[in-house]
Amino acid sequence: MTRTEPDGGAPSLLVTGTTSDAGKSVVAAGLCRWLARQGVKVAPFKAQNMSLNSVVTPDGAEIGRAQAMQAAASGIEPDAGMNPILLKPGGDRSSQVVVRGRPAGEADAVSYREHKEWLRDIAVESLAELRSRYEVVICEGAGSPAEINLRDGDLANMGLARAAGLPVLVVGDIDRGGVFAGLHGTLALLEPADQALVAGFVINKFRGARELLEPGLRMLRELTGREVHGVLPWLDGMWLDVEDSLALSVDRGPMAAPVGEQPLRVAVVRFPRISNFTDIDALTVEPGVDVRFVTTPHELEDADLAILPGTRATVADLAWLRERGLDGVLARRAARGHPVLGICGGYQMLAREIRDDVESAAGTVNGLDLLPTTVTFAAEKTLGRPEGTCYGERVVGYEIHHGQTEVAWSGAGTVPFLDGCRVGAVWGTTWHGALENNAFRRAFLADVAECAGRSFVAAAGTDFAAERTARLDALGDMVERHMDTGAIWRLLESGAPSGLPVVWPAGVAPAASSGSGENTG
Protein backbone atom coordinates (compact mmCIF):
# COMPACT_ATOMS: atom_id res chain seq x y z
CA MET A 1 0.00 0.00 0.00
CA THR A 2 1.62 3.24 -1.14
CA ARG A 3 -1.20 5.77 -0.75
CA THR A 4 -0.84 8.29 2.08
CA GLU A 5 -3.29 10.55 3.85
CA PRO A 6 -3.41 14.24 2.92
CA ASP A 7 -1.22 15.06 5.94
CA GLY A 8 1.47 12.70 4.66
CA GLY A 9 0.71 9.94 7.15
CA ALA A 10 0.05 6.31 6.40
CA PRO A 11 -3.54 4.99 6.32
CA SER A 12 -4.85 4.01 9.77
CA LEU A 13 -8.01 2.85 11.47
CA LEU A 14 -9.13 2.62 15.10
CA VAL A 15 -10.53 -0.54 16.69
CA THR A 16 -12.80 0.26 19.65
CA GLY A 17 -15.12 -1.89 21.73
CA THR A 18 -18.44 -1.75 23.50
CA THR A 19 -16.71 -2.77 26.74
CA SER A 20 -13.33 -3.67 28.15
CA ASP A 21 -12.30 -7.18 27.05
CA ALA A 22 -14.69 -7.06 24.08
CA GLY A 23 -11.81 -8.21 21.86
CA LYS A 24 -10.13 -4.98 20.71
CA SER A 25 -6.61 -6.29 21.31
CA VAL A 26 -7.33 -9.57 19.54
CA VAL A 27 -8.98 -7.92 16.52
CA ALA A 28 -6.18 -5.36 16.24
CA ALA A 29 -3.58 -8.12 16.44
CA GLY A 30 -5.45 -10.15 13.82
CA LEU A 31 -5.56 -7.17 11.46
CA CYS A 32 -1.84 -6.59 11.99
CA ARG A 33 -1.07 -10.25 11.25
CA TRP A 34 -3.29 -10.32 8.17
CA LEU A 35 -1.73 -7.14 6.77
CA ALA A 36 1.82 -8.29 7.51
CA ARG A 37 1.14 -11.50 5.59
CA GLN A 38 -0.01 -9.35 2.65
CA GLY A 39 3.45 -7.78 2.61
CA VAL A 40 2.27 -4.53 4.24
CA LYS A 41 4.63 -2.77 6.63
CA VAL A 42 2.20 -2.39 9.53
CA ALA A 43 2.51 -1.24 13.15
CA PRO A 44 0.15 -1.24 16.17
CA PHE A 45 -0.73 1.77 18.30
CA LYS A 46 -2.60 2.41 21.53
CA ALA A 47 -2.54 6.01 22.71
CA GLN A 48 -3.40 5.26 26.33
CA ASN A 49 -3.35 1.86 27.96
CA MET A 50 -4.38 1.01 31.52
CA SER A 51 -2.75 -2.30 32.29
CA LEU A 52 -0.52 -4.03 34.83
CA ASN A 53 0.88 -6.30 32.12
CA SER A 54 3.82 -4.51 30.55
CA VAL A 55 7.06 -5.34 28.81
CA VAL A 56 10.43 -3.71 28.16
CA THR A 57 11.24 -2.87 24.55
CA PRO A 58 14.71 -3.31 23.01
CA ASP A 59 15.36 0.41 23.57
CA GLY A 60 14.56 0.09 27.29
CA ALA A 61 11.03 1.56 27.31
CA GLU A 62 8.04 0.16 29.19
CA ILE A 63 4.84 -0.37 27.19
CA GLY A 64 1.68 -2.46 27.45
CA ARG A 65 2.14 -6.15 26.82
CA ALA A 66 -0.73 -6.19 24.31
CA GLN A 67 1.09 -3.73 22.05
CA ALA A 68 4.23 -5.87 22.20
CA MET A 69 2.08 -8.83 21.16
CA GLN A 70 0.59 -6.80 18.31
CA ALA A 71 4.10 -5.78 17.23
CA ALA A 72 5.00 -9.48 17.12
CA ALA A 73 1.90 -10.05 15.00
CA SER A 74 3.21 -7.32 12.68
CA GLY A 75 6.63 -8.96 12.48
CA ILE A 76 8.43 -5.99 14.06
CA GLU A 77 10.09 -5.07 17.35
CA PRO A 78 7.99 -3.00 19.78
CA ASP A 79 8.95 0.56 20.69
CA ALA A 80 7.72 3.30 23.02
CA GLY A 81 5.80 5.09 20.27
CA MET A 82 3.34 2.20 20.00
CA ASN A 83 1.97 2.91 23.49
CA PRO A 84 3.04 6.42 24.48
CA ILE A 85 0.88 6.57 27.64
CA LEU A 86 0.63 3.63 30.04
CA LEU A 87 -1.33 3.81 33.30
CA LYS A 88 -0.41 1.24 35.95
CA PRO A 89 -3.02 1.21 38.74
CA GLY A 90 -1.62 0.97 42.25
CA GLY A 91 -5.00 1.10 43.96
CA ASP A 92 -8.59 2.08 43.39
CA ARG A 93 -7.79 5.76 42.93
CA SER A 94 -4.22 6.23 41.71
CA SER A 95 -1.99 5.03 38.89
CA GLN A 96 1.61 5.39 37.88
CA VAL A 97 1.76 7.34 34.63
CA VAL A 98 4.36 6.05 32.16
CA VAL A 99 4.99 8.44 29.27
CA ARG A 100 6.98 7.32 26.24
CA GLY A 101 8.25 4.37 28.18
CA ARG A 102 9.40 6.19 31.34
CA PRO A 103 7.61 6.83 34.66
CA ALA A 104 6.31 10.39 34.86
CA GLY A 105 4.72 10.28 38.33
CA GLU A 106 1.53 9.20 40.09
CA ALA A 107 -1.93 10.59 39.42
CA ASP A 108 -5.47 9.99 40.57
CA ALA A 109 -8.53 10.26 38.34
CA VAL A 110 -8.99 13.94 39.15
CA SER A 111 -5.41 15.14 38.88
CA TYR A 112 -4.91 13.12 35.69
CA ARG A 113 -7.42 15.36 33.93
CA GLU A 114 -5.08 18.31 34.47
CA HIS A 115 -2.48 16.58 32.28
CA LYS A 116 -4.79 15.54 29.47
CA GLU A 117 -3.93 18.42 27.12
CA TRP A 118 -0.20 17.76 26.90
CA LEU A 119 -0.76 13.99 26.99
CA ARG A 120 -3.15 14.31 24.05
CA ASP A 121 -0.43 16.13 22.13
CA ILE A 122 2.00 13.30 22.92
CA ALA A 123 -0.51 10.71 21.71
CA VAL A 124 -1.20 12.53 18.44
CA GLU A 125 2.51 13.18 17.84
CA SER A 126 3.38 9.54 18.52
CA LEU A 127 0.75 8.32 16.06
CA ALA A 128 1.95 10.79 13.42
CA GLU A 129 5.52 9.57 13.90
CA LEU A 130 4.46 5.94 13.44
CA ARG A 131 2.46 6.86 10.35
CA SER A 132 5.60 8.43 8.88
CA ARG A 133 7.54 5.15 9.27
CA TYR A 134 4.95 2.52 8.37
CA GLU A 135 2.54 1.85 5.51
CA VAL A 136 -0.44 1.16 7.82
CA VAL A 137 -1.03 1.74 11.52
CA ILE A 138 -3.75 -0.24 13.33
CA CYS A 139 -4.89 1.65 16.42
CA GLU A 140 -6.63 0.17 19.44
CA GLY A 141 -8.99 2.12 21.66
CA ALA A 142 -9.36 1.86 25.43
CA GLY A 143 -12.46 0.69 27.29
CA SER A 144 -15.46 2.05 25.40
CA PRO A 145 -15.74 5.14 23.17
CA ALA A 146 -19.13 5.83 24.78
CA GLU A 147 -17.78 6.77 28.23
CA ILE A 148 -19.67 10.04 27.92
CA ASN A 149 -18.54 11.29 31.32
CA LEU A 150 -14.93 11.17 30.09
CA ARG A 151 -15.39 12.35 26.50
CA ASP A 152 -14.02 15.87 27.01
CA GLY A 153 -10.62 14.51 28.00
CA ASP A 154 -10.60 11.45 25.78
CA LEU A 155 -7.34 10.80 23.98
CA ALA A 156 -7.59 7.09 23.18
CA ASN A 157 -10.96 6.68 21.45
CA MET A 158 -13.01 9.26 19.58
CA GLY A 159 -10.72 12.06 20.72
CA LEU A 160 -7.89 10.38 18.85
CA ALA A 161 -10.13 9.49 15.89
CA ARG A 162 -11.25 13.11 15.53
CA ALA A 163 -7.71 14.47 15.88
CA ALA A 164 -6.27 12.08 13.30
CA GLY A 165 -9.31 11.54 11.05
CA LEU A 166 -9.45 7.80 11.68
CA PRO A 167 -12.26 5.50 10.54
CA VAL A 168 -13.54 3.50 13.52
CA LEU A 169 -14.68 -0.09 13.99
CA VAL A 170 -16.67 -1.01 17.11
CA VAL A 171 -16.22 -4.57 18.44
CA GLY A 172 -18.88 -6.30 20.56
CA ASP A 173 -18.59 -9.54 22.53
CA ILE A 174 -21.63 -11.68 21.73
CA ASP A 175 -20.61 -14.38 24.22
CA ARG A 176 -21.59 -12.03 27.06
CA GLY A 177 -25.01 -11.34 25.54
CA GLY A 178 -26.60 -8.05 24.55
CA VAL A 179 -24.27 -7.44 21.64
CA PHE A 180 -26.82 -5.68 19.42
CA ALA A 181 -27.87 -3.35 22.22
CA GLY A 182 -24.20 -2.70 22.98
CA LEU A 183 -23.31 -1.84 19.40
CA HIS A 184 -26.39 0.31 18.76
CA GLY A 185 -26.18 1.99 22.17
CA THR A 186 -22.48 2.77 21.81
CA LEU A 187 -23.12 4.53 18.51
CA ALA A 188 -26.23 6.36 19.75
CA LEU A 189 -24.39 7.83 22.76
CA LEU A 190 -21.74 9.46 20.57
CA GLU A 191 -22.12 13.02 19.39
CA PRO A 192 -22.78 13.40 15.65
CA ALA A 193 -19.23 14.40 14.70
CA ASP A 194 -17.93 11.27 16.43
CA GLN A 195 -20.58 9.09 14.81
CA ALA A 196 -19.44 10.28 11.39
CA LEU A 197 -16.19 8.33 11.90
CA VAL A 198 -17.80 5.07 13.07
CA ALA A 199 -17.66 3.06 9.86
CA GLY A 200 -18.91 -0.33 10.97
CA PHE A 201 -19.09 -3.10 13.55
CA VAL A 202 -17.42 -6.42 14.36
CA ILE A 203 -19.12 -9.15 16.40
CA ASN A 204 -16.64 -11.24 18.39
CA LYS A 205 -16.73 -14.67 20.10
CA PHE A 206 -19.71 -16.10 18.20
CA ARG A 207 -20.62 -19.75 18.71
CA GLY A 208 -23.05 -21.29 16.26
CA ALA A 209 -24.42 -20.83 12.76
CA ARG A 210 -24.10 -17.35 11.31
CA GLU A 211 -27.52 -17.57 9.60
CA LEU A 212 -29.08 -17.39 13.06
CA LEU A 213 -27.63 -13.89 13.36
CA GLU A 214 -28.85 -12.60 10.02
CA PRO A 215 -32.11 -10.99 11.25
CA GLY A 216 -30.16 -9.09 13.90
CA LEU A 217 -27.44 -8.06 11.45
CA ARG A 218 -30.05 -6.81 9.02
CA MET A 219 -31.91 -4.82 11.69
CA LEU A 220 -28.67 -3.30 13.00
CA ARG A 221 -27.80 -2.21 9.47
CA GLU A 222 -31.25 -0.68 9.01
CA LEU A 223 -31.12 1.13 12.36
CA THR A 224 -27.59 2.51 12.01
CA GLY A 225 -26.79 2.58 8.29
CA ARG A 226 -23.58 0.66 9.04
CA GLU A 227 -22.43 -2.81 8.12
CA VAL A 228 -21.14 -5.58 10.36
CA HIS A 229 -17.72 -6.16 8.79
CA GLY A 230 -17.08 -9.43 10.55
CA VAL A 231 -18.58 -12.13 12.74
CA LEU A 232 -15.61 -13.73 14.44
CA PRO A 233 -15.88 -17.22 15.91
CA TRP A 234 -15.07 -18.23 19.44
CA LEU A 235 -11.46 -19.45 19.46
CA ASP A 236 -10.24 -21.57 22.37
CA GLY A 237 -6.79 -20.95 23.75
CA MET A 238 -6.34 -17.36 22.54
CA TRP A 239 -5.44 -16.09 26.02
CA LEU A 240 -1.73 -15.39 25.54
CA ASP A 241 -0.58 -11.85 26.37
CA VAL A 242 -3.97 -10.67 27.61
CA GLU A 243 -4.10 -7.06 28.71
CA ASP A 244 -5.74 -7.14 32.14
CA SER A 245 -7.15 -9.43 34.79
CA LEU A 246 -10.70 -9.18 33.37
CA ALA A 247 -9.56 -11.91 30.98
CA LEU A 248 -7.83 -13.94 33.68
CA SER A 249 -9.60 -17.24 34.24
CA VAL A 250 -9.25 -19.40 37.33
CA ASP A 251 -7.47 -22.11 35.38
CA ARG A 252 -5.52 -21.77 32.16
CA GLY A 253 -3.85 -23.96 29.62
CA PRO A 254 -4.42 -27.41 28.13
CA MET A 255 -3.62 -29.34 31.32
CA ALA A 256 -3.37 -32.63 29.42
CA ALA A 257 -1.14 -35.00 31.39
CA PRO A 258 0.73 -37.76 29.57
CA VAL A 259 -0.97 -41.14 29.88
CA GLY A 260 -0.25 -42.78 33.21
CA GLU A 261 0.97 -39.60 34.92
CA GLN A 262 -0.61 -37.08 37.24
CA PRO A 263 -0.35 -33.45 36.14
CA LEU A 264 2.16 -31.20 37.86
CA ARG A 265 -0.09 -28.88 39.86
CA VAL A 266 0.86 -25.19 39.86
CA ALA A 267 -1.01 -22.70 42.08
CA VAL A 268 -0.52 -19.01 41.26
CA VAL A 269 -1.62 -16.54 43.93
CA ARG A 270 -4.04 -14.09 42.37
CA PHE A 271 -3.16 -10.82 44.09
CA PRO A 272 -5.69 -7.95 43.96
CA ARG A 273 -3.10 -5.91 42.02
CA ILE A 274 -1.52 -8.81 40.12
CA SER A 275 0.81 -7.70 37.33
CA ASN A 276 2.65 -9.43 34.52
CA PHE A 277 0.71 -12.64 35.11
CA THR A 278 1.63 -13.39 31.49
CA ASP A 279 4.78 -14.88 33.06
CA ILE A 280 2.64 -17.97 33.66
CA ASP A 281 1.59 -18.38 30.02
CA ALA A 282 4.60 -20.51 29.19
CA LEU A 283 3.68 -23.05 31.90
CA THR A 284 0.18 -23.43 30.53
CA VAL A 285 1.40 -24.67 27.14
CA GLU A 286 3.30 -27.53 28.82
CA PRO A 287 1.47 -30.86 28.51
CA GLY A 288 0.99 -32.26 31.98
CA VAL A 289 1.07 -28.92 33.82
CA ASP A 290 -2.16 -27.89 35.57
CA VAL A 291 -2.18 -24.14 36.32
CA ARG A 292 -4.65 -22.59 38.74
CA PHE A 293 -5.00 -19.01 39.98
CA VAL A 294 -5.87 -19.21 43.67
CA THR A 295 -6.90 -16.98 46.59
CA THR A 296 -7.46 -19.38 49.51
CA PRO A 297 -5.12 -21.44 51.73
CA HIS A 298 -6.52 -24.87 50.84
CA GLU A 299 -6.02 -24.16 47.10
CA LEU A 300 -2.36 -23.35 47.76
CA GLU A 301 -1.63 -26.08 50.29
CA ASP A 302 -1.36 -29.19 48.14
CA ALA A 303 0.06 -27.73 44.92
CA ASP A 304 3.35 -29.07 43.64
CA LEU A 305 4.52 -25.50 42.95
CA ALA A 306 3.24 -22.29 44.51
CA ILE A 307 3.98 -19.09 42.57
CA LEU A 308 3.87 -15.53 43.91
CA PRO A 309 3.67 -13.47 40.69
CA GLY A 310 4.30 -9.79 40.09
CA THR A 311 2.23 -7.07 41.72
CA ARG A 312 1.95 -3.30 41.35
CA ALA A 313 1.60 -2.93 45.15
CA THR A 314 3.96 -5.28 46.98
CA VAL A 315 3.27 -4.09 50.53
CA ALA A 316 -0.51 -3.86 50.11
CA ASP A 317 -0.75 -7.28 48.46
CA LEU A 318 1.52 -8.77 51.13
CA ALA A 319 -0.96 -7.51 53.74
CA TRP A 320 -3.80 -9.07 51.71
CA LEU A 321 -1.88 -12.37 51.57
CA ARG A 322 -1.50 -12.36 55.36
CA GLU A 323 -5.15 -11.46 55.94
CA ARG A 324 -6.15 -14.58 53.99
CA GLY A 325 -3.76 -16.87 55.87
CA LEU A 326 -1.64 -17.63 52.83
CA ASP A 327 1.56 -16.66 54.68
CA GLY A 328 1.19 -19.66 56.99
CA VAL A 329 0.77 -22.00 54.04
CA LEU A 330 3.91 -20.64 52.39
CA ALA A 331 5.92 -21.01 55.61
CA ARG A 332 4.81 -24.63 55.96
CA ARG A 333 5.64 -25.32 52.32
CA ALA A 334 9.16 -23.94 52.75
CA ALA A 335 9.70 -25.95 55.93
CA ARG A 336 8.61 -29.16 54.20
CA GLY A 337 10.71 -28.49 51.09
CA HIS A 338 7.66 -27.95 48.87
CA PRO A 339 8.49 -25.61 45.97
CA VAL A 340 7.73 -21.87 46.05
CA LEU A 341 8.69 -19.39 43.30
CA GLY A 342 8.52 -15.61 43.69
CA ILE A 343 8.71 -13.38 40.61
CA CYS A 344 9.41 -9.63 40.94
CA GLY A 345 6.87 -8.39 43.53
CA GLY A 346 6.38 -11.98 44.68
CA TYR A 347 10.16 -12.29 45.14
CA GLN A 348 10.14 -9.09 47.19
CA MET A 349 7.52 -10.56 49.53
CA LEU A 350 9.81 -13.52 50.31
CA ALA A 351 12.37 -11.16 51.88
CA ARG A 352 13.13 -10.72 55.54
CA GLU A 353 12.44 -7.02 55.37
CA ILE A 354 10.93 -4.56 52.88
CA ARG A 355 11.77 -0.85 53.08
CA ASP A 356 9.26 1.08 51.03
CA ASP A 357 9.10 4.86 51.12
CA VAL A 358 8.26 5.01 47.40
CA GLU A 359 5.44 2.73 46.24
CA SER A 360 3.34 2.44 49.42
CA ALA A 361 5.16 4.94 51.71
CA ALA A 362 4.72 2.30 54.42
CA GLY A 363 8.31 2.50 55.62
CA THR A 364 9.82 -0.75 56.88
CA VAL A 365 7.63 -3.87 57.00
CA ASN A 366 8.41 -7.49 57.66
CA GLY A 367 8.51 -9.80 54.68
CA LEU A 368 7.71 -13.53 54.71
CA ASP A 369 11.33 -14.29 55.71
CA LEU A 370 11.64 -17.24 53.34
CA LEU A 371 14.75 -15.89 51.60
CA PRO A 372 17.78 -14.09 53.15
CA THR A 373 17.08 -10.82 51.35
CA THR A 374 16.30 -7.19 52.08
CA VAL A 375 14.31 -5.05 49.64
CA THR A 376 14.65 -1.28 49.39
CA PHE A 377 12.38 0.63 47.05
CA ALA A 378 14.15 3.22 44.89
CA ALA A 379 12.55 6.25 43.27
CA GLU A 380 14.08 5.31 39.93
CA LYS A 381 12.45 2.35 38.19
CA THR A 382 14.72 -0.39 36.86
CA LEU A 383 13.91 -1.29 33.26
CA GLY A 384 16.02 -3.83 31.45
CA ARG A 385 16.30 -6.93 29.28
CA PRO A 386 18.84 -9.10 31.12
CA GLU A 387 20.47 -12.29 29.93
CA GLY A 388 22.14 -15.05 31.90
CA THR A 389 22.59 -18.77 32.47
CA CYS A 390 20.73 -21.08 34.84
CA TYR A 391 20.67 -24.88 34.99
CA GLY A 392 23.32 -24.63 32.30
CA GLU A 393 20.82 -23.05 29.91
CA ARG A 394 20.73 -19.57 28.38
CA VAL A 395 17.95 -17.38 29.78
CA VAL A 396 16.69 -13.99 28.58
CA GLY A 397 14.00 -11.95 30.29
CA TYR A 398 12.98 -8.43 31.20
CA GLU A 399 12.73 -6.54 34.48
CA ILE A 400 10.43 -3.74 35.66
CA HIS A 401 10.70 -2.82 39.33
CA HIS A 402 11.37 -0.13 41.92
CA GLY A 403 12.45 -2.60 44.59
CA GLN A 404 16.19 -3.27 44.84
CA THR A 405 16.98 -6.62 46.45
CA GLU A 406 20.11 -7.31 48.48
CA VAL A 407 20.97 -10.96 49.14
CA ALA A 408 22.84 -12.09 52.27
CA TRP A 409 24.98 -14.69 50.56
CA SER A 410 26.51 -15.81 53.85
CA GLY A 411 23.29 -17.66 54.65
CA ALA A 412 23.60 -21.45 54.66
CA GLY A 413 22.39 -23.04 51.46
CA THR A 414 21.86 -19.75 49.59
CA VAL A 415 22.68 -20.12 45.90
CA PRO A 416 22.17 -17.84 42.87
CA PHE A 417 19.04 -18.13 40.75
CA LEU A 418 19.03 -15.84 37.72
CA ASP A 419 19.52 -12.39 39.33
CA GLY A 420 17.94 -13.60 42.59
CA CYS A 421 18.56 -16.51 44.89
CA ARG A 422 17.38 -19.88 46.07
CA VAL A 423 17.27 -21.54 49.47
CA GLY A 424 16.08 -25.13 49.51
CA ALA A 425 12.86 -25.28 47.49
CA VAL A 426 12.24 -21.51 47.54
CA TRP A 427 13.30 -19.57 44.44
CA GLY A 428 13.11 -15.83 43.75
CA THR A 429 13.91 -13.59 40.78
CA THR A 430 13.02 -10.16 39.39
CA TRP A 431 13.13 -11.49 35.82
CA HIS A 432 9.85 -11.58 33.96
CA GLY A 433 9.62 -13.85 30.92
CA ALA A 434 12.22 -16.34 32.15
CA LEU A 435 9.81 -19.27 31.82
CA GLU A 436 9.40 -18.53 28.11
CA ASN A 437 12.91 -19.96 27.60
CA ASN A 438 12.17 -23.58 26.69
CA ALA A 439 15.26 -25.40 27.95
CA PHE A 440 15.36 -23.42 31.20
CA ARG A 441 11.63 -23.98 31.80
CA ARG A 442 12.00 -27.73 31.35
CA ALA A 443 15.00 -27.87 33.69
CA PHE A 444 13.22 -25.79 36.31
CA LEU A 445 10.08 -27.95 36.17
CA ALA A 446 12.19 -31.09 36.50
CA ASP A 447 13.81 -29.61 39.63
CA VAL A 448 10.39 -28.64 41.01
CA ALA A 449 9.07 -32.15 40.40
CA GLU A 450 12.03 -33.70 42.18
CA CYS A 451 11.54 -31.40 45.19
CA ALA A 452 7.82 -32.25 45.21
CA GLY A 453 8.53 -35.97 45.00
CA ARG A 454 6.88 -36.31 41.62
CA SER A 455 7.87 -38.36 38.56
CA PHE A 456 6.92 -35.58 36.14
CA VAL A 457 9.05 -35.27 33.00
CA ALA A 458 8.66 -32.05 30.98
CA ALA A 459 7.79 -32.49 27.32
CA ALA A 460 10.93 -31.99 25.25
CA GLY A 461 9.13 -30.68 22.18
CA THR A 462 7.19 -27.80 23.73
CA ASP A 463 8.24 -24.51 22.10
CA PHE A 464 6.60 -21.44 23.60
CA ALA A 465 7.70 -19.05 20.85
CA ALA A 466 6.30 -21.40 18.21
CA GLU A 467 3.05 -21.66 20.16
CA ARG A 468 2.73 -17.87 20.28
CA THR A 469 3.47 -17.65 16.54
CA ALA A 470 0.81 -20.28 15.81
CA ARG A 471 -1.76 -18.33 17.80
CA LEU A 472 -0.90 -15.09 16.03
CA ASP A 473 -1.31 -16.92 12.72
CA ALA A 474 -4.71 -18.17 13.92
CA LEU A 475 -5.72 -14.55 14.49
CA GLY A 476 -4.61 -13.64 10.98
CA ASP A 477 -6.57 -16.59 9.61
CA MET A 478 -9.62 -15.49 11.56
CA VAL A 479 -9.52 -12.02 10.00
CA GLU A 480 -9.00 -13.43 6.51
CA ARG A 481 -11.82 -15.95 6.78
CA HIS A 482 -14.42 -14.12 8.84
CA MET A 483 -14.01 -10.40 8.18
CA ASP A 484 -14.90 -8.43 5.06
CA THR A 485 -11.28 -7.69 4.18
CA GLY A 486 -12.37 -5.78 1.08
CA ALA A 487 -14.24 -3.36 3.34
CA ILE A 488 -11.17 -3.05 5.58
CA TRP A 489 -9.02 -2.13 2.57
CA ARG A 490 -11.56 0.50 1.58
CA LEU A 491 -11.56 2.02 5.06
CA LEU A 492 -7.77 2.19 5.00
CA GLU A 493 -7.71 3.68 1.52
CA SER A 494 -10.64 6.10 1.79
CA GLY A 495 -11.53 6.55 5.46
CA ALA A 496 -15.05 6.44 6.86
CA PRO A 497 -17.77 6.71 4.18
CA SER A 498 -19.39 10.11 3.88
CA GLY A 499 -23.05 10.65 4.66
CA LEU A 500 -23.37 8.06 7.42
CA PRO A 501 -26.64 8.65 9.30
CA VAL A 502 -26.77 9.94 12.87
CA VAL A 503 -28.35 7.57 15.38
CA TRP A 504 -30.28 9.30 18.16
CA PRO A 505 -30.74 7.92 21.67
CA ALA A 506 -34.31 7.06 22.64
CA GLY A 507 -36.25 10.15 23.58
CA VAL A 508 -33.82 12.59 21.95
CA ALA A 509 -35.14 14.39 18.90
CA PRO A 510 -32.73 15.60 16.19
CA ALA A 511 -33.76 19.19 16.85
CA ALA A 512 -32.40 18.90 20.39
CA SER A 513 -28.83 18.57 19.11
CA SER A 514 -26.62 21.36 17.86
CA GLY A 515 -24.33 18.95 16.04
CA SER A 516 -24.39 17.57 12.55
CA GLY A 517 -23.52 14.29 10.99
CA GLU A 518 -20.47 15.78 9.32
CA ASN A 519 -16.95 14.97 10.34
CA THR A 520 -15.70 18.19 11.90
CA GLY A 521 -12.55 16.66 13.36
From TrEMBL:
GO molecular function: ABC-type vitamin B12 transporter activity; catalytic activity
Domain CobB/CobQ-like glutamine amidotransferase: 265-439
GO biological process: cobalamin biosynthetic process
Keyword Transmembrane: no
Domain CobQ/CobB/MinD/ParA nucleotide binding residues, every copy: 14-236
Pfam families: CbiA, GATase_3
Pathway in which the depicted protein is active: Cofactor biosynthesis; adenosylcobalamin biosynthesis
InterPro entries (alphabetical): Class_I_gatase-like, CobQ/CobB/MinD/ParA_Nub-bd_dom, CobQ_GATase1, CobQ_N, CobQ_synth, GATase_3, P-loop_NTPase
Coiled-coil region list: none
Keywords: Cobalamin biosynthesis, Glutamine amidotransferase
Catalytic residues of the enzyme: 344 (nucleophile), 432
Record family assignment: Belongs to the CobB/CobQ family. CobQ subfamily.
Function per UniProt: Catalyzes amidations at positions B, D, E, and G on adenosylcobyrinic A,C-diamide. NH(2) groups are provided by glutamine, and one molecule of ATP is hydrogenolyzed for each amidation.
PANTHER family assigned to the protein according to its UniProt record, in alphabetical order: COBYRIC ACID SYNTHASE (PTHR21343:SF1), DETHIOBIOTIN SYNTHETASE (PTHR21343)
NCBIfam families hit by this protein: cobQ, PRK00784.1
Protein name: Cobyric acid synthase
Organism (species): Halostreptopolyspora alba
